[in-house]
Protein 1
Amino acid sequence: MKVKSILVTQPKPETEKSPYYDLAKKYSLKIDFRPFIHVEGIQAKDFRKDRINITEHTAIILTSRHAVDHFFRLCQEMRITNMEELKYFCISEATAFYLQKYITFRKRKIFYGKQNINDLLEVLKKHKKDKFLVPCSDIAKQEITDTLGAHGFEYTKATMYKTVCSDLSDLADVKYDMLVFFSPAGIASLYKNFPDFQQNTTLIAAFGQTTSQAVLEAGLRLDIQAPIPEAPSMTMSIENYLKKNK
């Protein structure tokens, strides 16, 4: 079938330089963006039930902007202010720079990797005596805590926000030729909003192994997968499909 419309289940890009816009222009596509899931913060009264004492930790590992936002939000709600000596280990440079929204860079000890926990391992090993706090969501991947545990670090996993399904009722009568997913939670949201969803000729694209597995477990047909060796990004995988089926 000819693809004319695509729904990407993520927020709209902040700039016009997104490869999705290049794809839309090159193949005359209508590409819309709509998050199927969103994040909600855990309230301080509920966080206290986990009996986690933030001030007992000497270092924190931050994996996303959400982790940064909700860590500082909870600290404010719980009136925690004496954290000047806390060390910050960020999963990426972008996450580290986002910290400037809350703290002054030159006054803090901040370290960052390229994109995953393994990039941080060498510098983490130099701080083996620290007690690490790992803010995360209720559906956080185990990779980070598994890695910390395997290397003997003392850490606390702290659920500070949760991922919930967005209300998509306004899309009930809107049809797209292709749906693009980036997490198993996106698939769950699809069926929560549309329990009777039938794929029929709709193409399904999935990024990541766990997302692809969720597509198959839902009984859907997986038409496009990324990353793959010849197409490391979602847009490249979609373009490869469009070329083959032109």
Note: The longest helix spans residues 65-77.
Protein 2
Amino acid sequence: MTRRLSRNAPAVANVILVWLLCACAATPALPLNSERIAAAFGSYGIEVLKRSEQLRVSDLYSGADETRTTRTFAVVQYPDVIDARLSAAHAEILDGGSIGAVLADAGWRINKRNRFYSKVIATPRLQQLMRLEQASSLAMHMYVLEAQSGETRIDYAVIAELHHPEYLSLEQAREIYGAVPRLTRSQQARVNAVAALVAAEIAEQD
């Protein structure tokens, strides 16, 4: 059956296309992890536990002193070379700044491209940081953090986050960030390498 188009069809199609493009452009960015923690627990702080040119381990926490509780334990792997357009923000991040907040303040939109979800049993180190009385199951979310400005998109780091069970469950993380696409062989190899870094860091004692 042949479908006849009216004379106005091209104009209507153009209007729909413009609406779709505007709707996509207007899609708000998801709240940053720091913003979620502050909203959920009333405060937010960050301590960098380890840093090097290619690795950063961070404690994202709420509270202070005797109430301080790790809400997200983050392991960050940087690329061998940082894009020059991110060099100023990267220097601030290396100095202890919160990654998402620093990039956002510099005018970048933060996108998270999912790579892996898993459940991890809290090690003694994580039990202590998260104030858990037993070896609870934690949600782990791994993603590529992409900085975007207009049409410019730059991969900044691969980040694995382990969340306190009172903060984000695995189901909640998946609901917020969506599914993991089919990975290429090289992408899966990167996931495996970062997962190995995570295993080493959560076993390490101060």
Note: The helical segments are 9-25, 33-41, 87-94, 99-105, 124-130, 170-177, 185-203.
Protein 3
Amino acid sequence: MIKRLVLLAVLGWAATLLAQDDAAIIRKVDDHYNHLNSLRTHYVERYSGMGMDRSEEGTLLLKKPGRMRWSYAEPVGKVFVLDGKYAWFYTPGDAQVQRVPAKELDDLRSPLRFLLGHTQLKKELDGIAVAPEGGGFRISGVPKGMGERVKLLTLGVSAAGAIERMKLEEVDGAVTEFTFSEMKENVPVKDGDFVFVVPSGVSVVEGIKPI
């Protein structure tokens, strides 16, 4: 009986230490991004699902609070812009540009918005979990408000707390992965970088098409 109580006490102590370590890792990521005002990084986006398998790349620009611009390398001019009020998605040659209010955005790129706001991963992800991975960590959970679409969001985090990878698994089996490199923090950024000007002859429709 005494041995069992001792074992339970040890297991409880170990669980407490692991929980504290997990909390420290999550806090490191929060602190890393809460000290940033802007970020520029190269990204590679891979998507598989619905009979498709494709890869794209480009430059991602983030600015506090909650503004982002995904500039695709090909075709030149393809963008996804979040200006703080609306999200815009446009591909050159299209007759329409998609627009949706930022508060209603459920695009799979939207989880990155909180990185340059007041980051609190525990409040952004349901069922958050932490595990070691390579020289860093893996943080996973379901983005709040996206449970009907996203099965799991997994972040690959460096030992310094920087997010280097993001994987989104949808409930329908589709998987979207982002890899980030050449990250430059607190770079000079203009407000105009997040202004989308509707091209002449292009109409605006509400709604963002899937990745």
Note: Residues 3-20 have pLDDT under 50 and may be disordered.
